[in-house]
């Protein structure tokens, strides 16, 4: 029992340790990268480069400092946008008593869900040629169908409880039922899904950059660095290994933090239930 009680704390510490360096590099890296050279990049040669240079002569460490913000910010924005659509749609679909409205809200997303995510990204990118903002919108669109189904399933379970029916009979507002009760009841589900959703968004953003969607082929981007450096992996491994490790650390650490948060909430709920079960004037031994 003691080992299991310490385990979530260990997960939180490990998760925080894993994401600290990638986040610091993504947020503050461009401030320490120095002034760009010709055409916005730093072409260098000779000694004095911690991680060496890539096949075009650019300083790998400088590329690492510049390449994290696009990946992290785009994935985070895409995740937030996906939930901004999924939460109201899923809640309305779960709480409405009109079958036609539920079908109208859910069926279009099933069509989007049927199209493979990478194929959808490539199709939209071929038509719109998006930048970073457009890539965030595409990744959000890819994630919305799954998020809507998760929100609807969690909300439908909470909405079927007697407490919701009692709130309806008392004339409570839709907002109080949907957000005040149903929304709070599904926080654990949303927290678990958010970790997976953010990891999936990071994967899609990195994959899009790897394929040249939304970023320039010579952009300072961790995923682009992996793509460009993979052919010379055994000649200059740092240009591939460092950005790849940073992406893996960020995704793994994010999931560990969400898992630790869920475990902590579960323990707190269990202890609260045990405390309520103890008769008045008595204590457990």
Quick overview:
This protein has 285 residues and is mostly helical. The chain has helices at 2-32, 60-95, 99-114, 117-128, 132-159, 162-169, 174-185, 187-211, 222-229, 238-277.
**CATH homologous superfamily name?**
MetI-like
Structural class: mainly alpha
Beta strand count: 0
Please give the count of helices.
10
Binned, the helix content reads: over 70%
| Total number of distinct structural domains | 1
Second-tier CATH architecture: Orthogonal Bundle
Essential attributes:
mainly alpha; 10 helices
Overview of this protein structure:
- By secondary structure, the chain is an all-alpha fold.
- The chain has a single domain (2-277), classed as MetI-like (MetI-like fold), CATH 1.10.3720.
- 76% of the residues lie in helices and 0% in strands.
- It has helices at 2-32, 60-95, 99-114, 117-128, 132-159, 162-169, 174-185, 187-211, 222-229, 238-277.
- The protein is elongated and about 70 Å long.
- The protein starts with a helix and ends in an 8-residue tail after the last helix.
- Residues 1-7, 37-46 and 275-285 have low confidence and may be disordered.
